[in-house]
Amino acid sequence: MPKNAFYAQSGGVTAVINATACGVLETAKQYPDKIGKVYAGRNGIIGALTEDLIDTSQESAEAIAALRYTPSGAFGSCRFKLKGLEQNKAEYERLIEVFKAHDIGYFFYNGGGDSQDTSYKVSQLGDTLGYPITCIGIPKTVDNDLPITDTCPGFGSVAKYVAVSIREASFDVLSMAKTSTKVFIMEVMGRHAGWIAAAGGLAAEKESDGPHIIIFPEVIFDPEKFLAKVDFCVKKYGYCSIIVSEGAKNQDGKFISEAGTRDAFGHVQLGGVAPVIANIVKDKFGYKYHWAVADYLQRAARHIASKTDVEQAYAVGKAAVEFAVAGKTAVMPVIVRKSSQPYQWEIGSANLADVANVEKKMPREFISEDGFGITPACREYLQPLIAGEDYPPYKNGLPDYVELKNVAVPKKLATTFEVKK
Amino acid sequence: MPKNAFYAQSGGVTAVINATACGVLETAKQYPDKIGKVYAGRNGIIGALTEDLIDTSQESAEAIAALRYTPSGAFGSCRFKLKGLEQNKAEYERLIEVFKAHDIGYFFYNGGGDSQDTSYKVSQLGDTLGYPITCIGIPKTVDNDLPITDTCPGFGSVAKYVAVSIREASFDVLSMAKTSTKVFIMEVMGRHAGWIAAAGGLAAEKESDGPHIIIFPEVIFDPEKFLAKVDFCVKKYGYCSIIVSEGAKNQDGKFISEAGTRDAFGHVQLGGVAPVIANIVKDKFGYKYHWAVADYLQRAARHIASKTDVEQAYAVGKAAVEFAVAGKTAVMPVIVRKSSQPYQWEIGSANLADVANVEKKMPREFISEDGFGITPACREYLQPLIAGEDYPPYKNGLPDYVELKNVAVPKKLATTFEVKK
Fold first, then answer.
1. CB A319 within 8 A of CB A286
2. B278 near B183, Cβ under 8 Å?
3. A263 labelled catalytic
4. Catalytic residue among B114, B117, B143, B390
5. What residues contact residue A164 under an 8 Å CB cut-off, 6+ apart?
6. Among A298, A163, A180, A303, residue whose Cα is nearest residue A243
7. A81, A84, B124, B386: which sits with the fewest CB atoms below 10 Å from its CB?
8. What tens-digit pLDDT sequence spans chain A (421 residues)?
9. What are the pLDDT digits (tens) for B38-66?
10. CB–CB of B169 and A269 under 8 A?
11. Strands (E), A171-212
């Protein structure tokens, strides 16, 4: 009898993480001699710890196929990071208990840096706790901050959303600038890396195009320099269009806007730097301004997903299963760029040990000398990632996204497990 | 010699006001015996006052056709309202001076309620100042608050953007709710009327779907009732997805968030009610929340425009010219709904005297009894307006919007005119 597989989604969801799930599920079906059922964790790894598994074999082939164009995490995700074996052996023992009970021999974990740390720890189970399990990490993060892989599935679609949105808003503000709004500020995600903010720069194909200013987390915010550039843009182009990263920092290295709350990983929860920047502009020049905070709209925007991103998201899911059936473990499929023009890529492999807890920042040579824009090298890197459209089907004027049945696998254990936050 | 025409865009721009311009320009070319050149006002009526006219005949047919899928106001818009004849006769005399100098016999003014007040006043010029001019208002406003017309071009596309976005964000939050964000708040436009907020309700096709709560400007915000519903939703559905109108008001009838600045029409400039609502939720329940402010992104979002809206925007531009050449004046083409299922509409005509300064609010029967949702009647009204997609062409992963040359018409007057704010 082939072993069953466990698949879970972790961390912030994206417009294309379900395309990865689709790749995993459709590919697993092609190996019935090696993989039995695929059980999804309800709400990520928590589903494994609490024996709350979803039987994906209960879904129709059509529903699984529809995951390719449905944003969000179809099985539920979670923000929960397994501690080290030394600190919390009970969690690992519980995972083994659940995996054994359901005859699970494959572990697929779909997430970003924190999640790949979990993948790596689970991959060590075989050695340290004597339970053989094939463990494959699958990359996902809008932040684009995983190492080794050329890009992270989820990023290209956020990048496209941000570039499209700032182009549209810049056109709008240019129309209004004579008698009304002169400065527009759009806040985008990117906790510590400016990749998403940089993507906004793709909209500026010639000098006068917005965005005129990008505020990166990698460049300490200098209000004087910033205000001088705003002044220059309003005088020269009639308006100033600005992208600001939620992770923008002031001279003290602190986030310009700090909500004060922290997520389960201990990261500061951010939001609301755009109005702070707007006030700085207003105080100095008195210009009428508008600001937008895209927040979840950007990472959920499957309606304007990048075709490249959707294809890569599917491909890493497919590759993860192919790695597993080929006997690989403790690895993660990655995107390898062969060429930028024309854009060519293929799937490669990275060791989870090299991926976990490593954060890839924007290289300084991707940021223009004045710190407020992107360089041609950055454009060459980003451009292919937003290429192509991949529209979902519509019904009643709205995207016809799928909701799965998510039927629970009957529990086999008498024991329960309390997940400690 | 046929008279020339003047066309201008006014007030906040939309995703489809250029589709209307396209309708005007393409249709005017079909009547060379009646209409000479079409001059566009640079920055709306200010272009007429300052003799800053754009010669649209200098644009290629391709560029004019591309206006159909380009958001924003291609000639520049303005927030400027002509005063009454008694208060500022000089402005009207100046308009006549410019119109005479450029042999302008047709005046097309594309805007919302304040702008149609201007259209109406200009239409009176013929009578009171002895200058014969054919004057046609053309409806446009994302607020959907013009009277007589069944809907306002610009609204359907914002409605679609809001409904699509809240569906996507709701899917996202549902994925995260177990361990992270439980409450999501999206702020949308709509100064005094809740039409845009109501459109978000289209995304909720069954009880558990987001948005679960809509905060309308028409319904005084009751924090206790609101919090009780948030609590109910989080307990029943695991999360709560909320749309809040920028015009939401508290028990004193004041805007929940007031930026304190006013636009040229004297309207309070709003923004930032979403974080206020988020704090109310957090203070009561401590739930992790996220909020978004779509701001200009929503009205500029041509990438997800409603096909119905684009067609109607073009149709009112076309009809305006047809009205003019048929000898009508002081009228505005309107959308007349013949049937909702199947959706059928045609162009009708309204007198500017009946349009100016009348604001159409949401009927109470469109808002559910508890004040937090839309009724089936509202859904029947809104549904057809977001129907159909009308994607722009893409280049380099981005919408390939047109920028016109906007060549100035040589000035003929020695006099200048200072526009008073």
1. no
2. yes
3. no
4. B143
5. A203, A304, B303, B398, B399
6. A163
7. A84
8. 899 999 999 999 999 999 999 999 999 999 999 999 999 999 999 999 999 999 999 999 999 999 999 999 999 999 988 887 788 888 888 999 999 999 999 999 999 988 898 899 888 877 778 888 999 999 999 999 999 999 999 999 999 999 999 999 999 999 999 989 999 999 999 988 999 999 999 999 999 999 999 999 999 999 999 999 999 999 999 999 999 999 999 988 888 877 444 444 554 444 589 988 998 898 899 999 999 999 999 999 999 999 999 999 999 999 999 999 999 999 999 999 999 999 999 999 999 999 987 888 899 999 999 999 999 999 999 999 999 999 999 999 999 999 999 999 999 999 888 887 6
9. 999 999 999 999 999 999 999 999 999 99
10. no
11. 183-188
CA dihedral A80, A81, A87, A88 (to 10 degrees): 50
Which residues touch B402 (CB under 8 Å, ≥6 apart)?
Answer: B63, B66, B67, B70, B74
Best mutation target, A9, A168, A385, to test chain B (most B CBs within 10 A): A168
Q: Do residues A110 and A10 lie in contact, with contact meaning Cβ atoms separated by under 8 Å?
A: yes
* DSSP codes, A214-250: EE-TTS---HHHHHHHHHHHHHHHS-EEEEEETT-B-
CB contact under 8 A, B387 and A396: yes
What is the rounded distance in angstroms from the CA atom of residue B362 to the CA atom of residue A190?
Answer: 39
* H or E element, residue B322: helix B307-325
pLDDT in tens, A255-301: 887 744 444 455 444 458 998 899 889 889 999 999 999 999 999 99
Please give the CATH number for the structural domain made up of B3-141+304-353+389-399.
3.40.50.450
For residue B193 the two structure tokens come to: 């009327």
Q: Do domains A3-141+304-335+343-353+389-399 and A155-301+375-386 have the same CATH topology?
A: yes
- Tell which CATH architecture fits domain A3-141+304-335+343-353+389-399: 3-Layer(aba) Sandwich (3.40)
Contact B396 A160 (CB under 8 A): no
- What are the start-end ranges of the E strands in A226-329? 240-245, 289-293
Rg (CA), chain A: 22
Q: Which residues of A touch B9 (CB under 8 A)?
A: 175
* Residues from chain A contacting residue B186 (CB–CB below 8 Å): 297
Q: Round to whole Å and give the CA distance between A5 and B136.
A: 67
Q: Is the link from the previous residue into A333 a cis peptide, with omega within 30 of 0? A: no
Cβ proximity of B141 and B155 under 8 Å? yes
Is B94 known as a binding-site position?
no
Quick one: B155-301+375-386 is in which CATH superfamily? Phosphofructokinase domain (3.40.50.460)
Chain A residue with minimal CA distance to B295?
A: A292
Please name the residue that has the structure tokens 């610009």: B154
Enumerate the domain spans of chain B: 3-141+304-353+389-399, 155-301+375-386
**CA–CA distance, B303 with B399 (Å, rounded to integer):** 7
**Closest Cα to residue A279, out of B31, B48, B272?**
B272
Report the candidate in A365, A387, A385 with the shortest Cα–Cα distance to residue A375.
Answer: A365
